[in-house]
Amino acid sequence: MLAYPLPSGRYCVCHCRYDGVEHTARGGQRVRTHIAILDPKDFRKFDNNPFSVDQALARVPVEAARAFSPAMGRLHLKATDLYTQPRHIGNAKGPSAFLKVVRALIGEERCILASVPEARPTLQWAMMMIPLSMRAKRSFSVGVKFSLTRNLTTTIVHQDLERVRQMVAGQSIQWRDVTADTPVRQDLFAEWINFVGVRADQGRVGEVSKLTNQMTELSTQIALARIARLSLDRDAAETHELDVLTALRNEYNKFAARDELETKLTEDIRQFVEQRIADVEEAMREAEEQANQDEVTVKSGPSRI
């Protein structure tokens, strides 16, 4: 697979598949490449995720892919559900490997990712962890022989690792083996990466994608850190401790939201905190009344003769 933005503003996704033995006497293997070029409106239907486009191209029957020609008009692809969430995210080291992929995608530098487990599903889900506005600017190569002449933001390799590593030595290209026991790099997007890690540990990465799909404007590290904080504070409001809830109410009554998404999250926190405070105070009153009734019952109990 190859995927990259075009100067025109459209996005190109190339899906490569095996197409049988060479028809000549050479008897080699044939590869057929099915190319989809999407304008911004069509790409948005796939959440600006090239791996979802690749998933749809993979569903096109081989015969249809062979018969296609420009004279046939537009190619009608249908967006489908995401791949099943990669199994390794639930393993002990799964979130760490997943976070390394997310970190690579959200960064601006060129990088090579080695040994990505369940590459296409992992990359598809990792793309959903970065803002919608960032996704259309990323370019990828998966399963294609590495070349320095391709100016791609992310290249995924599984073979000839040592050769590729030697090729990029001295180049302004980062090398990352996601299965190696190295910590996730913390930098400008540290708060957001930590937030994604929390949701991965909780099995709630789908909630992150719902947030990022609403980030249509340019998202800075500060904007992402604010969204992460709002989401985690919403979790903190699940407590029964009245002092924590009161502190959250005081903080978010003065909180100034910067955009529509922050406004939604802030309003949700305010409403939820108010309801939690009312529930906790009601529970405290009921407990006090029950204690008073028990005390009266003890005092008015049968006297000894």
Q: What's the short story on this structure?
A:
This protein is an alpha/beta fold. The N and C termini lie far apart (93 Å). It has helices at residues 40-44, 50-58, 62-67, 94-106, 119-127, 132-135, 161-168, 190-202, 205-212, 221-236, 242-253, 260-299, and strands at 2-5, 11-21, 29-38, 110-114, 140-142, 154-157, 173-177.
Descriptive report:
By secondary structure, the chain is α/β, with parallel strands linked by helices. It folds into three domains: about 80 residues, no CATH class; about 130 residues, no CATH class; about 60 residues. Helix content is about 45%, strand content about 15%. The protein has twelve helices and seven strands. It has a seven-stranded mixed sheet, with helices on both faces. A hairpin with a 5-residue loop joins β1 and β2. α4 runs antiparallel to α8, α10 runs parallel beside α12 and α11 runs antiparallel to α12.
Keywords:
single chain, 305 residues, alpha/beta, 3 domains, 7-stranded mixed sheet, 12 helices, elongated
Poorly predicted regions? none
Assign a percent range to the helix content. 40-55%
Q: Would you report the number of β strands?
A: 7
Sheet bearing the most strands, described?
7 strands, mixed
Number of helices: 12
Please, how many domains? Answer: 3
Question: What pattern of helices and strands is seen along the backbone?
Answer: EEEHHHHEHHEEHEHHHHH
Q: What is the CA-atom radius of gyration, in angstroms?
A: 26 Å
What's the shape?
Answer: elongated
Calculate the terminal CA-CA distance, rounded to whole Å. Answer: 93 Å
Strand order of the largest sheet: 3-2-1-5-6-4-7
* Beta-strand content bin: 5-15%
Mean pLDDT: 86
Structural class: alpha/beta
